From TrEMBL:
It comes from Lasius niger (Black garden ant). Keywords: Cell membrane, Membrane, Olfaction, Receptor, Sensory transduction, Transducer, Transmembrane, Transmembrane helix. Its main location: membrane. This is Odorant receptor 13a. It comes from the Eukaryota. It is found in: Cell membrane. The keyword Transmembrane applies. GO terms for biological process: signal transduction. One of its GO terms (molecular function) is olfactory receptor activity. The chain crosses the membrane at residues 43-65, 102-130. PANTHER family: ODORANT RECEPTOR (PTHR21137), ODORANT RECEPTOR 19A-RELATED (PTHR21137:SF35). The lineage of its organism: Eukaryota, Metazoa, Ecdysozoa, Arthropoda, Hexapoda. The keyword Transmembrane applies. GO terms for cellular component: plasma membrane. InterPro entries: 7tm6_olfct_rcpt.
Length: 174
């Protein structure tokens, strides 16, 4: 239970830091960098869901039309094939049992794929966000010496650096 609470606190801190970063964007170049990273994260998300849809189609939809991907054995394969090979304590060839088992396997696969893909998408979003923040931080450091208000710019950069270190620490907790 403590591990779940610790991970929830780490995730909520990362999400809060990401929201604060989007609110405090001051310069258009920083905003453009962050939008580019968000687009890359969105592309990863779209690819993940496309792969999930393809897997669902191959595993659930095509076998419904008689196109099976599995290696057929004599151990558990009877007249009607289910997407996942397993030992069942009931006869899956009968009509209501087959359809119910197929629906349960499809729902289980769909929920598992959604969960897995959503976690991957969140981690990709967080990693792309931090990489965008690091790029913005690098651009701020390059122009630090030429700024007129060096002390306040240095203070802001130190605070940003501490926030990024805290964010990396929270990533390690995940």
């Amino acid at each position: 239970m403590d591990a779940i609470l610790l991970n929830f606190q780490a995730v909520s801190l990362i999400v809060r830091m990401m929201a604060e970063d989007w609110v405090e964007l001051r310069v258009n170049t920083e905003r453009d960098v962050m939008i580019g990273r968000a687009r890359a994260a969105r592309l990863v998300l779209i690819c993940g869901y496309a792969l999930m849809t393809f897997a669902f189609t191959v595993l659930i939809v095509l076998p419904s039309f008689g196109l099976h991907y599995r290696h057929l054995t004599n151990l558990t394969d009877h007249g009607r094939l289910l997407p996942f090979q397993a030992y069942y304590f009931y006869d899956t060839d009968k009509s209501p049992q087959f359809e119910l088992t197929l629906v349960i396997q499809a729902a289980t696969m769909f929920l598992g794929a959604i969960t897995y893909t959503s976690v991957d998408a969140f981690l990709a979003l967080a990693i792309f966000h931090v990489s965008g923040q690091l790029e913005n931080f690098r651009h701020r450091l390059v122009g630090l010496a030429s700024r007129k208000d060096f002390d306040s710019a240095l203070r802001d950069n130190v605070q940003t650096h501490i926030r990024l270190i805290r964010c990396f620490y929270e990533f390690q907790l995940l």
